[in-house]
Write a structure and sequence with these properties.
Blueprint: H1 2-24, E1 42-45, E2 50-52, E3 61-66, H2 71-86, E4 91-96, H3 103-113, E5 120-122, H4 127-131, E6 139-143, E7 149-154, H5 159-169
Parallel strand pairs: 3-4, 4-5
Antiparallel strand pairs: 1-2, 1-5, 3-6, 6-7
Length: 171
Amino acid sequence: MKKVNLTALIVAVLAAALLGWYLLAPGSPGKRPTTVDVPDVRLSTLGGREVELRQFLGRPLVLNLWATWCPPCRREMPLLARTAAARSDVAFVFASQDQGRSAPLVRSFLDDSGLVMEWVLLDPQNVLQRKLATTGLPTTYFFDAGGRLVAKHVGEISPRILEASLAQIAR
């Protein structure tokens, strides 16, 4: 009789452990992350309107930190602009890290390059670099619709890495 009870107890403990692991494992249906990694910052558009970065929560977000003086940033911009134009399911935000330089400088760069992008924001104090502990430019962050950081790429992004990262957040 004791042997049967001990076996039942072991089976119950193992079943509970497996159920707990299933519900709490990364990517499982029972796991509900509670943090939002999209920084709580307010930046200005090229037109001077203030925008809360968290207003983009609710759909996947690509956040690109760049600067007009950065050669790799300049090289990757056409790819990012084309992809942003083609992907209405994902918000693309381009945060200029031009250290106090003005909107006319950024606008001039975009116009001279033939780039049209909806969400170009100015971060003259490099707030995002500090909040995200960015180590270099360009850096592209990929957030899911809940605002959780899923992927990050430092340096000029390739089409392959961009598509793979988009696939991770647009599930």
